[in-house]
Design brief:
The chain is α/β, with parallel strands linked by helices and 205 residues long. The protein is built from six helices and eight strands; from the N terminus they run βββαβαβαβαββαα. The protein has a domain of 141 residues: Lumazine/riboflavin synthase (Rossmann fold), CATH 3.40.50.
Amino acid sequence: MSPAEVAPGAAPERIGSARVEGGHRLPALELHDLEGIRGSGDGAGLRIAIAASRFNGQVTEPLLAGAISELDRCGVSGEHRSVVWVSGAFELPLAAMALARTRRYDAVICLGAVIRGETSHYDFVAGQCAAGLQRVQLETGLPIVFGVLTTEDLAQALARAGGAVGNKGTEAAMTAIEMVNVLRQIEALAPAVGELSSSSEAERT
């Protein structure tokens, strides 16, 4: 049965979780709501790296705790994950690229906090961090998850690092696992080499 199929009379499978238990949760989906490929939340056997910024550590440490807690919940074992600390958010793209190039990991989660100050420093760091991480993702084909808070003040950041608004680290871990599983399903759609050869031969005859 494909991910979009439901047996007659069976209750539709729920993807994700609608609960909020100390962390942000993406909205749950019923299979009959949308058709198509979706990534599961099963992290068993996956290898996940986390790059975290030491700057604004009072924010990034709870982000990391939320990410690790979610990886535990989803079945990513301790020996299958690594944590790398870098100076700040600006250094996250380089660390992500180095981790991706090892080919040891299925995804890289990047955690940081850029808080607006009285100068334009915020705009340069936040923008370049986001652009750099996107570039790593597109160049390597590996999920590089943007778990970097960009807020107006410290209170907003703390609210999103395990506070009233949830935990961006939790959401980043969920996204990493989902994207790995989505990409694997997409890759499985590609025809095998033998199928390609047979198809080309058939077109020539």
